Batch of 4 targets.
Target 1
Amino acid sequence: MLNLKIFSQVSLQKGAAVITYNLMNSGSDSLYAYLCKSIKRDILHGTLKPGERLPSKRTFASNLGVSVVTVENAYAQLIAEGYIYSIPKRGFYVADFSNLTAQPQKEIPAFSEEKIPLTGGDSSYFADFSSNQTSSDLFPFTIWSKVIREILNDSRVQLMTNSPCGGIFALRESIAQYLKDFRGMSVRPEQIIIGAGTEYLYGLLIQLLGSDRMYAVENPGYRKPERIYNSYHVPCARISMDEAGVQVPELERAGADIVHITPSHQYPTGIVMPISRRYELLAWASRKDGRYIIEDDYDSELRLSGQPIPTLHSIDMSGKVIYMNTFTKTLCSTVRISYMILPQPLLKPFYENLSFYSCTVSNFEQYTLARFIEEGKFESHVNRLRSHYRKKRDMFLEALHSSRLQDMAEISGSEAGFHFLLTLRTDVPQETVIARARSKSIKLVPLSAYYYGDAPEHVQNIYVMNFSSLEVSRAEEICKRLYACCG
């Protein structure tokens, strides 16, 4: 039993901030999650000032009566989200983003719910690091088929009733409740629009926001959004990134109206956008009418270390963030069910101008997924996935560190999702490494392939390693073959 101390004012460390918390109020949160929330709240409220030093892990743990691991996990999560930073041998400090808060949204009359329809590759390679194919062993076939049978027996009338344009209410309600329980997001079901894949939803957004706007994408970034924007003949700017994400001054110079980003796990670099840059982006969006941020949260449930990073949507006070997510990562790549969350100002124009579209996901899939979420089966499945991919990642990294490749390899961005970056320190040109790997039945995709235009020289021989379809029993042999490509 942990000895949870209740105290009023305690100076935890000479020169460090004075922090007091009552850990008896943690409720259903784990101790480290509650401690993380408490520190975050004090930072946001200004109780902890920018640049202020936090207590050491050991001193803090001793005064709270908890383990050092509890404090260590809380600090690690705060660093990942950008609220604090560490300086080796000096300690932990509060980050400075005090001047980057977005303007609050003007009062917008609630849109009447009465006007809203709420119801009714297979690869031949020995190792293919470009593939995100889901293994059939991971899909919950037995549970899914049981839920389908229940739906076929219980919901025959609903299955034969045409779905509203935004999707059946049962699924939208289930998603809204899931987001509230597990992501801390407060959304109404009618804000959620269901579609067969994010590509379809991008098309709807272009029609909703306008084809005369300037859209912007991350550089480097996932190439498909730009291709979709180009197919709709809308102007699209490519915005360079630094270590915190897209650069806001470049957004201004490009005259962008809408920016498409992956802030919680940038693809392909793996960057987690810190809280300071998030507020900077929100401030950019709030400075001009018609600006919006598309937050693509494509693999948020699969963060393998710590808690999922809070969404940009959850701190948006101006109604400027359009949130998007998909079930293709958590269920399987062939389940084409995605959704977006429209901010309040966009609801009326969407339902007035685009409600003639039929929902592109069948009722059978929508009702099945709704019940799958409602009964807690989706949560259990995601927990199983995290465990599976964490073990797969760890086994591959262990094989790499035990191989001759260790001295010339560097791993980054391995905390979340299905991919990480592998940097090979070798004088062998990138094109030669890729060709040699292909001759050894290994498919590599370089980071430079995700740049628009010429990639900078420093990203040569950095590779995007998607490991979801990797057979870990081959990990040792894969490392041997990769090593042979570098000599």
Target 2
Amino acid sequence: MKQLNVNVAIIGGGTAGLGAYRAAKAHTDNVVLIEGGPYGTTCARVGCMPSKLLIAAAESVHQIEKAPGFGIYPQGETLINGKEVMARIKSERDRFVGFVLEGVDEIPAADKISGYANFIDDHTLVVDDHTTIIAERIVIATGSRPAYPAIWNDLGDRLIVNDNVFEWDDLPDSIAVFGPGVIGLELGQALHRLGVKTKVFGLGGQVGPLTDPEIMNYANQAFQEEFYLDADVKVESMKRIDGEKVEIQFINLDGEPDTFIVDYVLAATGRRPNVDKLSLENTTVVLDERGVPSADHYTLQTSAKNIFIAGDASNQIPLLHEAADQGRIAGDNAGRFPDIRAGLRRSSISAVFSDPQIAMVGETFKQLEQRFGGCGCFATGEVSFENQGRSRVMLRNKGILHVYGEQGTGRFLGAEMMGPNAEHLAHLLAWAHQNKMTISEMLDMPFYHPVIEEGVRTALRDLNAKLHLGPEMIKHCLDCGPGC
């Protein structure tokens, strides 16, 4: 067996691993990158990019359906060619993956080790049956994978995860989506709009990543107006029938027994970090109750001082920009060890590319409730987009925004929202949050007219009044024009 002695070993060649590799190389040339599967990122291959391609196709159909609301009537039936839809998705997906692989190709061949790594101790890794690596420092960046109940495996190839969707050559006739989280909502709504008979099921009533009860309730109702969504379904049975179908017996929203026969069941019930097959029991790393290494939020250092963890494997925030930041921090610290430094952890921002979109910034409603313990130390400002001027102009007037501010200081704490262009509104609010702005300072910023962002100002004005730092809201204020 081949033996290597290195300064830094990175396990995983995705977003976090590639970021860690580049950061570590800034300090030492003696770095190896270990990858057992195909190089590339979850985002490019099966995540954010191919899903947005599917959503873009669905949005184009939806715009045609909305045209009569403007007095425009497309002639004839809209034909959705599933094969062409999927061909474009796969072609563009492969293009995005190609960009990632171009970066991988620039990594020296000697630095890339093919295979799956297992820990022998805190400093020793065995890669498959061909290489032993003795590393002074190690970064775990092994990503995550879809998780679902094991009993569902009885469905065979009729059970799929989001990865499988982007390998289709054509759209199916029907699908049941389990899990109304980020992936389930995005794919479920998009497939529904593309003509696939779709029902979305969940347990416990959770819709998306939202924690604000009022916004979650609004989101649940808004989605139910467009497609079948039961976020707390009671499933009586689910079994494979006729070879190529799945029969789901459940209690429907009217409380009556119902049956849905589908081509596929899409499991969008969450993801689990890929750390369970690393033989971490051979190390001194302390694991949390989920079996994931505990790590410092700012340094990404585990309890074993020479081992770091980054990206989805850390089970912190499974988003590409977070994985990239964590990879850089972990790689930098592994490279400069023992000179460990706290890295920049940006204000949190997340989005669901549903329609209307869902977005969250800073501290969530649930986190604020837990932190302040019901002391009344924060207030909530609100705006509805149903009567917001620009939103109504575009017939996109659905949604609600809540912004949270601290009593006394007036500091902006966070926001949860469902609404038009929420991805863009969230960026403005995230920048304000990271700069620790007060609500008054945010209200001093420029707002153009007529734009959806004026809704943010309305919510901020409402919040400023509730913090007793500004006047009460004036209904139909005209200082910026009608419909703001």
Target 3
Amino acid sequence: MTLAAELPVHALRAARIRQLLRLLLVGFYVAVLLTEPPAEQLIPCWVIVGCYLVWTIGTGFLATADPRAQRLLWVALVVDVAVLTLLTLLSDTAATQSWTPYLLINGFFVIPIIAAAQLNPWMCAAVVAPTVLVQFVAGALIRNVGGEPWSYVVLRTVVLSAVGLGAVLLSRLQRARVQRIAGLLADRTALLEELLVVQQREQQDLAEVLHDGALQYVLGARQQLEDVAEGDPSAGQRVDEALREAARLLRSTTSQLHPAVLEAAGLPAALNDLVETVRARQPLQVSLIVEGWDDRLRTPVDSQLFAGARELLTNVVKHAEADRVQVTLRRDGGEAVLTVADDGRGMGSVDLAARLEQGHLGLASLRVRMEAAGGGLGVRAGQPQGTVVDLRLPLLE
């Protein structure tokens, strides 16, 4: 999910909020004209309010029926300001004493709130600034009706400016939240896609291990049984060796598939089986170093570290073109650190966020999983070549 896909949904909700606020503004106009009707220009004021009501209903219907039209509905904010200004100036501006314009001018405080429903802070600011200016001009024109001092006009403008600034900041906050939500949805979608890829890859690796490894030893042992039947004295030993190797490969494969093995044997033993499996299947010099880790230690992050090691070793085998790889498990204060270092071609400068956006999901999705667990993933260049990847997770014993 991208920001472009998420914006229309929030824009539709914002359009409904703007329509509700405009209807409340119409109600405000009606209440003022009923309670404090102007002695002059009353009919034109009712006509303007009626037209504004029709306009509000029409724009609300248009925004709901055609989401593409929402981009053009910012023009309605200009109409809001124009209608309010016209009503204020028409209501007894020629009278010597009237409360109607002073009541109507308070409607300017609603305009910034309507503009805040926009997901574009710049557009909101472009509406708020003229609103403040027009309110000041209208206040200056009607001040003689009731003898309002200039200080009142200025203070009202200052308060409206503060409300407008708050509206712009609120609009910016809304857009930032939408962007954040879109980013989280993108990460979630990427992780789901990566999960499917990992599952397919694990199924393929399992099929290769069973077919090319254990199954071949079992078939070889079966062929050796014929030699045993013929009385070959060394055939029995070869059958035993083949079955032992098949059992070792099956045990190693099981340790990769079933997390219960981690509870039974511990993370170092499970990593050792993983290393032996890679060493047996690939022309790689794979080594394991365990520092400060008790074999009896069991932690909630064992399965995540093991899955991360398996994924990193798979990446090394498929992409690194390395001759040697070293896996290190150690404790660093309250953290567990798993390091996979190879002497391959290296990755250079890696921007994981950019790789995620571009669809390179391996390391990026692993980083997201580590960060979700309160840890992190670091990538750096090896010396003199290669790549070093560090997985860190808080060690909760």
Target 4
Amino acid sequence: MFNIERWQEIFETIRKNKLRTFLTGLSVASGIFILVILLAIGQGMQNGIAKEFENDATNRISVWTGITSVGYKGLNPGRNIEMDNRDYEMAVAKNQDKLELKSGVYSMWGVLTTYGNENGSYRIEGVRGDYQFLENETLTAGRYINQGDLNNFEKVAVLGNRVNLDLFKGKNPIGEYVELTGIKFKVVGVYTDPGGEREETRIFIPLTTAQRVFNAGDKLRSLAFTLGKEDNFEKALAASTAFSEQLEADLKVKHTISPLDERAVNVNNTLEHAKRFYDLDTMIRMFFWGVGICTIIAGVVGVSNIMLIIVKERTKEIGVRKAIGAQPWSIIGMILHESIFVTAIAGFFGLIFSLFLLEIVGPYIEMDFIRNPSVDFSVAITTVIILIVAGAAAGFFPAYRAANIKPIEALRDE
């Protein structure tokens, strides 16, 4: 029930102790402000990690080879391991029921590309049709590589948006011809990539054409796969890890590589990286919660000390109240009321200021692993609950002490 006299007492106490109340409230507001900012940074890290994994398919498994570092079966270390079409076919045949997307890749760097009087050096990649989705690319014009291109060794090319802008200067490139080291390729598509311009400075051509035109035989630079969907992340991670380990083992057997060699065959599993990143993000967010809560506790201790001082100052008044029949619960309610009020008002100022700051500054923060730090409605509600609990905790012990004051001893207090 609303009690105007109690509110008058609270405001009178605050008026008499303006500086003390302000400093105490400032500590609580600072605690809430720090907590919200830290939680926003944690959310920004999660946003940044999610953005990083948008660049490619989220469950992509990439394989490439290097130089052996361990001698094996009479073969010396230092052998350069090269994959070929048979490696790709072996992986596909053995895991046909598990695979969703698949492609072999033959890459060339710094290939001179010419259109009319414009030219530049770009990365050329021979791929299969699934590679568009393995790279998470979106076509803005035309089409991608298809099976007919592969079967017929067609000289067609799909340009990254940056290549398109460099060579065609806004002109429609579809149907035009570009020269790759003097060999004409018909432009059939243009794509964009969430990875930005760095990923858009590439040109894709049919894998079979790349191997024939650039005298690669049946060689491949890398393999790329995704597995079918699973019911949950843990199952997907387990299936992905098992596939990666088996594929690595198969390639080592085929190319006579020591099982202990960690350099000859390299497997990159994005799900494993995602789990490590998200586990790290969870730990950081828990640490932020801990720091924020500890900061709030420091403020609560300040409020509690102030309430103890107030109880001490009002000992005689409390004794009089009890002498004329005031119940212990009413004394406790009086102290808790004031404690929760001071804590809540100060905390709301800290909360509102932090949300205002994030609304203004947050959208402009775009770093590699921190993007648009923010907090959602559930976090705001959580901080409100924390404020109420903190206020009650700050006032409980002073209120308990006040409720146990004996009227006779209180009246004797000086």
